[in-house]
Protein: Alpha/beta fold hydrolase
Amino acid sequence: MNKNTKHFTMQGHAGSMEGLIDMPLDGRKPRGIALVAHPHPLYGGTMENKVTQTLARAFVALDYVVARINFRGVGQSEGTHDRGHGETDDMELLYRHMVEQHPDLPVALAGFSFGTYVQSQLAQRLAAQGTPVERLALVGSAAGKWQMADIPPDTILIHGENDDTIPVQAVFDWARPQDVPVVVIPGADHFFHRKLGHIKNWVIALWLGKQLQKDDPEDG
Structure:
């Protein structure tokens, strides 16, 4: 993604897993750790999915150390798809690995589609362990398809108006009882074709509480 992107491998519960780490640009001091989860492995989802990369770019711009892994059976990651259970376990291993490397930094969780299910489950698990994460950013939340866990009220939820994979109404129905706002991108489909810049801009703006910037032409 940038000149500071590095490949790494780590041991997961089902074997070796491959990942990517992005450092803040220009040697800036990291302000946190962000773990980004990709969409469904059985439908072409990888850590290099465009929405996943856009989330990574947003957190790099926020000066976070960003880590991604390919879930089981994707790319060079060993094992087979485990319906989100093993994937959540492996994401927790990534969490612990990154906290060991950067023990004084807060941790944010981000995900797209199936990855939102994994991150909501992980956030709930870590909170129950007494180590809640800093905040979540979830795009194309898998409400209605997967048993999404409840999320903190400051979670950033972004969804496409024309998402025919996960209808926006399903996200409203899940978010409404939790009183969590949903940012709806007009005209966007599930994969945010030609709308990726909105994801990056909204995540950065809501994370910092600032006004939106003009779209970055590199974001598609």
Notes: The chain has five helices and eight strands. The chain has a mean pLDDT of 94. Strands lie at 6-12, 15-22, 32-37, 64-69, 107-112, 135-139, 156-160, 183-185. Helices lie at 50-61, 85-101, 114-128, 168-175, 196-208.
